[in-house]
Specification:
The protein is of the alpha+beta class and 262 residues long. It is 37% helix and 26% strand.
């Protein structure tokens, strides 16, 4: 059974990134999947290219994508794809978005790539071998003091889930140095992996949001768990907390403190 290499994933991500870069700053055909959750023709063009290339080389693998859903396979291997993470940013001309590609074998993510086409920054990881940014090893921040930590979170397009995150945000914006909301879970986790951001939490994502970036953060040396501190974050509801081990404990304690006081 033929399997891809990490370089295959990087090549696909860069090809997808070319589509995103070419479409950035243009007028777009915007369609709404929900009240505020949108998709553009660039999402679909990026995804269609990825589907075509993956099917041509690995026709028996399953593919899980944000826009087209799931295509069943026969090998136990799956591609988990977000062709444009940060669509709202992209549609508004905000230069924070990426393509995310992960490859799993028997439900374990083995390789992941997150590519930011505007900065030409390619984050990648292979399980057990480390994580890299444009080929150079990366590691998370060593900050252990929550008061000095720059955190990041995201808010769901589902109003009920969004509202559940507001108490966490209020608590942590008081406790941390600052809290950012960048609009791309894949880049949030990748920035934790390379130490630009100290910690991350987010509730109820989708598998394609965190499959690649979660592995990248893990392989960089960050601790990544679900919102309850369990190691298997790659299962519904796909919540995640990520930071170095000491800061992770402090961040998780604050999140639990909010829950206990509700």
């Amino acid at each position: 059974m033929q399997q891809p290499t990490l370089f295959d994933l990087i090549d696909l991500a860069r090809a997808s990134g070319e589509i995103l870069r070419a479409g950035y700053g243009q007028d777009h055909q915007v369609h709404y999947k929900g009240l505020i959750d949108l998709v553009t023709e660039v999402d679909r063009n990026s995804e269609n290219m990825l589907l075509e290339r993956i099917r041509a080389r690995f026709p028996q693998d399953a593919i899980i994508t944000e826009e087209s859903g799931r295509f069943e396979g026969e090998t136990g291997c799956s591609w988990i794809i977000d062709p444009l993470d940060g669509t709202v940013n992209f549609a508004h001309g905000v230069p924070i978005f990426a393509v995310s590609i992960a490859y799993s074998v028997n439900r374990e993510v083995r390789m992941g790539v997150v590519y930011d086409p505007l900065r030409d920054e390619c984050f990648s990881a292979e399980r057990g071998k480390g994580a890299w940014l444009n080929g150079l090893p990366i590691s998370p921040s060593v900050e252990t003091n929550l008061q000095k930590a720059l955190l990041v979170t995201g808010f769901s397009y589902d109003p009920a889930i969004r509202d559940r995150n507001l108490p966490y945000f209020v608590q942590l914006v008081k406790k941390a140095q600052a809290v950012r909301r960048m609009g791309s879970a894949a880049l949030d986790l990748s920035y934790v992996a390379c130490g630009r951001l100290d910690g991350y939490w987010e509730m109820q994502l989708k598998s394609w949001d965190i499959a690649a970036a979660g592995l990248i953060a893990q392989e960089s040396g960050a601790l990544v768990t679900d919102m309850d501190g369990n190691p298997d974050f790659m299962r519904p509801p796909y919540g995640a907390v990520a930071a170095n081990a000491a800061l992770h404990a402090a961040l998780l304690a604050e999140l639990k403190n909010v829950e206990d006081n509700e």
